[in-house]
Write a structure and sequence with these properties.
The structure is a homodimer.
Chain A (H helix, E strand, L loop, with lengths): L5 H20 L3 E2 L5 E3 H6 L13 E3 L5 E4 L4 H10 L7 E10 L11 E10 L4 H17 L4 E7 H10 L7 H9 L1 H16 L4 H8 L2 H8 L3 H15 L5 E3 L13 E7 L4 E7 L3 H4 L7 E7 H8 L11 E5 L5 H13 L4 E3 L6 H11 L3 E5 L1 H6 L1 E6 L5 E5 L3 H9 L2
Parallel strand pairs in A: 1-5, 7-8, 12-13, 12-14
Antiparallel strand pairs in A: 2-4, 3-4, 5-6, 6-11, 7-9, 9-10, 10-11, 14-15, 15-16
Helix pairs in contact in A: 1-4, 1-12, 4-10, 6-7
C-alpha cells in the first residue's frame, strides 16, 4: 500500500476529476458503499468461494462475524441492487474508490488501489454495451492517451468453439488457456489444448481473427448479431480504437455476453468489463441485465505521473512583515478569498527574501508585502512575479485587484 | 456502516466539493494514505495503547502482522510527516476520507464515517491557529450553517486550575470531569471533583467564563497572550461566531495549546481541533509544531440532507424511436457531449409517453426524439420541457443548440 504525497495526489485528483466529469456527461450517478463487506458476499461471486480468503483481506470482528475488505466494486453494487428493488431502471451508477487484494507485493502492484467503475443495470440492449465502451473511450481521450479497445462476445466465442469440436465441458479450460495467449504465446496455448485433450482447430480461427469467418462458421446467432451491431455503432461513430478480438475471453466466468479490454498503445491494459446478466440474481435479487467496466486508476496515474505538470492552487501570497501586520493581512486575505481567489499567508515569519524563494519554488504568481506603511496607509502593492510589475490598491479595490490578477 | 445511494451521494459529494474548494482557497494540498495501518502506529497516539484494540477494527494479515483500520486522519499524517523529513514547511495538507471505529451501533453513529481534516505542520505562530479556525468558519458559512466556534487554550486552563488549587497530578482527572459538563451539568462536575478529592474553586471561574478574570488570576502568561491574540484576530475579522469557552478541555491529551470546537447552533458539535506540538515526535520524527481540525462529514450530511435539493446532472435526453435510430442518436449524443453538455440516451426502448414520465421525474430540461423522419432528414427538434417550446436544428448546429440549451 502506498501514500500519495501532495505532488502525486494533486495529479491523482486531476485524473479522478476528469473521470468523474466524463461519467456525469453520460448521466451516471455516484454511489458509495463501505470498504468492509460480509465475507459471504465477497465469496459468492464467480468461482471464488472459500479459496478467495487467500487473495483478500479477511478477518473476524469482535462479534466473530466474518468480514473482508472489498476486492472490487461489482460485489457491493450487486448487493445494493439486489437489496433495493425500488431503484429506478436504468440504474446507472459510478464509483471511484479503494479496493484491496492480498497479492504478493510486486513492482507496480498494490494491495490497495483505486478503481473507477461504471455500470448500467436493467438494460439488455446493445445500446448499453455501446455506451459503456463509449464512456471508456471518452475517458481515455480526455486524459490524452492513445489506446485500443478490444471487443469480443463470450457467447460467440463459445458457439464457435463448440462448432469447432470443443466439448461443452471443456469450454472453461479452453478459455483459461486462450486467456493466456499474451503470456504463453500461440505455441503455449496449442500445447495446453493438446495436454488437456481439447480439439484445437478453433485456434486457427482465433489467430486469423476475422469477424466474417466467424460469421460464416456459426451463422447469424443472437450473440453474433449483437456483436455486429456493436461494432457497427463504433464504426458509425468513428471510434477507430475499437477492434474485434476473438481471443478475448476474460477469465471471470460471470460474463454473459460482450467483453472488452482497454490498453494503452504499447502499454498495459488499464480497464476491462463486459455484460453480466446473472450476477444480481446470485445476490438474491431478481435477475437483471447488467453491463459495466472498471478502470485501474493507479495504472492511469503511473502512466501519467511524469508528464503531468500541476500548477499551484494558490493565486496570491501575502507576507505580513511583523505581528502588527497580522490583523490587516488576515483581513486582506479574507476579502480576497471571498472573491474566489486562492490566498496563502506567510505563517512562518520568514524574511522577504526567503518568502520570495518559497513563492518562486511554488510557482505562485502574485505577492503582497504588508509592512508598517501598508498597515498605516491601508494601501499596498500587488506584485506580478513573472513580469515584476506592481500596482497599488487599497483594501476595498477588490474588483480591481481581481481584474489585475485574472489579467482582465 | 451505510451505503449512500445516488440521491444521498450526490448531496454528500456536493458537501465534499464545497469543503475541498475551501481548502484549496487557503493553499492546502491533498494527501492520501491507506485505510489499513500497522497496529503499533494506531496504538501509539494518546493514551490508546493496547486498550484501543477494543475500539477499532483490528486484525492480523496472513503474515501475522498486526493491522487495523485507521480511526482518524492524524495518525497517518504524523506517520507520513515523521518519515518524510524533506516535506516543505509549512506543510499544509487536507484529506477527505473514511475512518473506522468499532463503536456499539447507535442511531446516527456509524462505524465507517467520512472525515475532512486539515492541518498545518511546522508553524508555531498564532497565525496558524487562526487560519485553521478561519477555514472552519469559511466551510460552515459556505454550507449555510449558523454555528458557534468555542475556543480555549489547554495550557491556560491548566495554569488557572493549578492557581486555584488543583494539584498537578489531578489535572488529567479534573479535565475529564470538566469535559463532561454538557452531559452531567454543573452539579455533576462538582460531585465528581468532590469524590476525586479535587479542589473545586476553579469551577467558579469556569462557570463565570470571563477572559478578563482569567487574565487577572494567572497574569500575562505566554499561553494567555496567544489566546488573547487569537481572539483579537477573530474580532478584527468580524468572526462573531468565535467565543471564548473556558470549560473546553477536549479529552485527547495530545493537545498542547489552543483547542476549539464547532457546533451547529441548537445542534450537534460537528468539528474540533487544536494544537498538538508533541505528536510528530512520538512517531519518530523531529518534534514539529502542528495544529489542525477535523470535521465529521456525516454529521454535516445528516444536517443538510433534507434541505438540499440536487438538480439532475443531465441536460438533454435523447429518445431513439427504433433500432434504425441508434446510429444517428449515438452520433448526436456524442457531438453534444463534446460541447460539454450532459446527455442521456433512452437505453430501455421505452415508448415516448414512458420516456417523458422518466424525464419529468428526473427533472431533465430538454428532450430530443429521433424517429424515421429525423434520421432521413438529419433534422430534429429540441424541446424545452418547462415551456414546451421546440426549435429545429441539424446535427452540425452545435453552437446554436448549445445556445438554446444554455439560454443564451
Amino acid at each position: 500500500m502506498r501514500d500519495f504525497l501532495p505532488e502525486q495526489m494533486k495529479k491523482k485528483q486531476f485524473i479522478e476529476d476528469k473521470i468523474r466529469r466524463v461519467f456525469e456527461k453520460y448521466g451516471y450517478e455516484p454511489l458509495q458503499s463501505p470498504v468492509v463487506e460480509d465475507f459471504d458476499l465477497l465469496a459468492a461471486k464467480g468461482s471464488g468461494g472459500e479459496a478467495i480468503k487467500e487473495e483478500i483481506y479477511y478477518f473476524k470482528d469482535k462479534g466473530d462475524r466474518e468480514l473482508g475488505l472489498r476486492y472490487d466494486m461489482t460485489v457491493p453494487l450487486a448487493r445494493i441492487v439486489a437489496s433495493n428493488p425500488s431503484l429506478p431502471r436504468p440504474f446507472k451508477r459510478y464509483v471511484i474508490g479503494q479496493v484491496y487484494r492480498y497479492d504478493r507485493p510486486q513492482a507496480k502492484r498494490y494491495r490497495e488501489f483505486t478503481q473507477a467503475d461504471w455500470d448500467i443495470i436493467g438494460v439488455k440492449s446493445v445500446l448499453a454495451d455501446f455506451e459503456v465502451i463509449q464512456v471508456a473511450i471518452d475517458l481515455m481521450r480526455s486524459l490524452g492517451f492513445e489506446f485500443t479497445v478490444k471487443v469480443n462476445n463470450r457467447i460467440v466465442l463459445e458457439e464457435l468453439a463448440i462448432k469447432m469440436g470443443v466439448k461443452e465441458e471443456q469450454i472453461k479450460e479452453a478459455f483459461k488457456s486462450i486467456d493466456k495467449l499474451d503470456k504463453i504465446s500461440e505455441k503455449g496455448v496449442r500445447d495446453e489444448f493438446k495436454s488437456k485433450g481439447i480439439d484445437d482447430s478453433v485456434l486457427e480461427q482465433i489467430f486469423v481473427n476475422s469477424f466474417d469467418e466467424v460469421k460464416a462458421r456459426i451463422g447469424e446467432t443472437e450473440s453474433l448479431k449483437e456483436l455486429e451491431q456493436l461494432l457497427e455503432l463504433a464504426k458509425d461513430n468513428d471510434y477507430n480504437e475499437v477492434k474485434f478480438e476473438l481471443s478475448l475471453a476474460r477469465g471471470l466466468e460471470y460474463y454473459t455476453g460482450v467483453v472488452f479490454e482497454i490498453s494503452i498503445n504499447d502499454g498495459p491494459s488499464v480497464a476491462g468489463g463486459g455484460r453480466y446478466d446473472k450476477l444480481i440474481g446470485l445476490y438474491g435479487g431478481q435477475d437483471s441485465p447488467a453491463v459495466g467496466c472498471s478502470f485501474g486508476v493507479d495504472r492511469l496515474f503511473d502512466n501519467l505521473e511524469k508528464e503531468l505538470v500541476m500548477g499551484p492552487n494558490t493565486d496570491v501570497f501575502i507576507i505580513p512583515m511583523s505581528d502588527n501586520a497580522f490583523s490587516f493581512s488576515t483581513k486582506l486575505s479574507r476579502k480576497l478569498r471571498e472573491t474566489g481567489i486562492s490566498v496563502e499567508l506567510d505563517l512562518m515569519g520568514r524574511n522577504v527574501k526567503k518568502n520570495f524563494e518559497y513563492v518562486n519554488k511554488k510557482g505562485i504568481s502574485f505577492v503582497i508585502v504588508i509592512g508598517e506603511n501598508e498597515v498605516k496607509s491601508e494601501r499596498f502593492k500587488v506584485k506580478e512575479m513573472a513580469s515584476g510589475s506592481e500596482k497599488e490598491f487599497q483594501i476595498n479595490d477588490l474588483s480591481k485587484i481581481l481584474g489585475f490578477i485574472k489579467g482582465q
